[in-house]
Amino acid sequence: xxxxxxxxxxxxxxxxxxxxxxxxxxxxxxxxxxxxxxxxxxxxxxxxxxxxxxxxxxxxxxxxxxxxxxxxxxxxxxxxxxxxxxxxxxxxxxxxxxxxxxxxxxxxxxxxxxxxxxxx
Amino acid sequence: xxxxxxxxxxxxxxxxxxxxxxxxxxxxxxxxxxxxxxxxxxxxxxxxxxxxxxxxxxxxxxxxxxxxxxxxxxxxxxxxxxxxxxxxxxxxxxxxxxxxxxxxxxxxxxxxxxxxxxxxxxxxxxxxxxxxxxxxxxxxxxxxxxxxxxxxxxxxxxxxxxxxxxxxxxxxxxxxxxxxxxxxxxxxxxxxxxxxxx
Lengths: 120, 198
Description:
The complex is a heterodimer of chains A (about 120) and B (about 200).
Chain A: H1 6-10, H2 17-26, H3 30-33, H4 38-61, H5 66-90
Helix pairs in contact in A: 4-5
Chain B: H1 19-25, H2 27-30, H3 35-45, H4 52-79, H5 85-91, H6 94-100, H7 125-149, H8 153-182
């Protein structure tokens, strides 16, 4: 998660335009997503998911901010897409993407849990 | 209703065990200003909150605190993984070990069990939001105290992430308090309790 640098995170509080632009520029496009290895795809999921977490709280108290709404839409779309990619390649992280990797086995329990070695 | 997501909000990858520091960090699981109390505080307060923005923020921050609890537990788990009886003895981990082996249990660094008496759900939006603002600052101070003791960058990195989230949550609760006050009588914010008086 190098892109999601501590500098950005230490920048205290509010979503401002610079911060949003910086974050958006750091997020890879969907074409690069296909060439990512497992760790890179996981980092990408963590980054876009964090963007969604952050803008979600901001929107709760600023529900009419159009720029934040557009940012939410873009990040949410990237997140959902990446979660599906991850599920089909490595196993599901969410129950809603579990059918992407469903073969003859229940894969939800196969991959390591997030606190374990090799987990997310 | 909640859905589990099989990843941490921010990665925790600790390669060196350190039961001494684990005993300090466990306070952010079950201590007086820890993540379990934080989550329970906001998720308890939200039911009677009359303003939709604030009900939303209590729900979403209360949910994020569960993800923080999971990160704190992952840190403690990795810091105490596969300890030998000798290491347990040497590091002062024996009093915890005798009751819980290497399992996670919500307690303060002092050994005091987690308790709902560490938070309030008062049923008055101004009172509860002041409680929430104070809680975020108390948690931030606890992370600052932890960071003064932590030398391992693999431990400090996720702790810094958690510390930063306290500051963002403080900001959002401040905005929530402003939203509540905007809806009340500015000549006397305490003229009535919008969670009780109709």
